[in-house]
Amino acid sequence: MKKFFKLILGFIIALIILIIAMVACTSFFASEVDKELKKGDEVSSVDSTQSTDDKKQATPKNFAFGDTLKVGDIQLTVSKAQNQSPDQYIDTKNNNVVVFDVTAVNTGTNSVFISSGEFNLYINDEKTEEYFGSEDTPISGDLNKGKTLKGKIFFDAPKGQNLELIYKPSFSWSDNEVVFKGNN
């Protein structure tokens, strides 16, 4: 009978040690995954004069049109706003189309998706409508590792305004939101 109790007690102790080891390994793995996900979603300006420590200390989320920045694994450049006349057969509210040239470079190891729908333009905190009447195709598509995608985004907006263009990646583990500010 004593042998049976010793066997049961040994089994229970071994089971407790196994459970503790599994919990410790799982929490370590989860914390490492969190670190990697957060690292992949950092936003920083692409500026060779700053050290990496400086970038980590003060990472502004507001940028000017024409700046190149890194959002997670995407290096993103949005040109200064350009005004153009709308297509003669497409009705517009403002009789003007604001156009941005966008260049996205995938610096990561997995493919990423870029779309004009990830950009919103605001004037005085009021959202403007995306314009779909151009012969040029808006930026959209999967971007493989190490590759570049160029395209345009179009908005129906009046001339001479203070613009706030917000980019928020659709498929991201964080709520990174980048704001480009400038005039058209």
* Class from helix and strand fractions: alpha+beta
* Terminus-to-terminus distance: 89 Å
State the order of secondary-structure elements, H for helix, E for strand.
HEHEEEEEEEEEEEEE
Radius of gyration: 25 Å
The total of beta strands comes to: 14
Low-confidence parts: 48-59
Residue fraction in strands: 35-45%
Mean pLDDT: 83
Write down the overall geometry: rod-shaped
Biggest beta-sheet profile: 7 strands, antiparallel
Number of helices: 2
Question: What report would you give on this structure?
Answer:
This protein is 24% helix and 36% strand. It is built from two helices and 14 strands; from the N terminus they run H-E-H-E-E-E-E-E-E-E-E-E-E-E-E-E. The strands form three sheets. Strands 1, 3, 4, 5, 6, 10 and 12 form a seven-stranded antiparallel sheet that branches. A five-stranded mixed sheet has the order 2-14-13-8-9, with no helix packed on it. The chain has a two-stranded antiparallel sheet with strand order 7-11. With 184 residues, the protein is α+β, with helices and mostly antiparallel strands. The model is unreliable at 48-59 (pLDDT under 50).
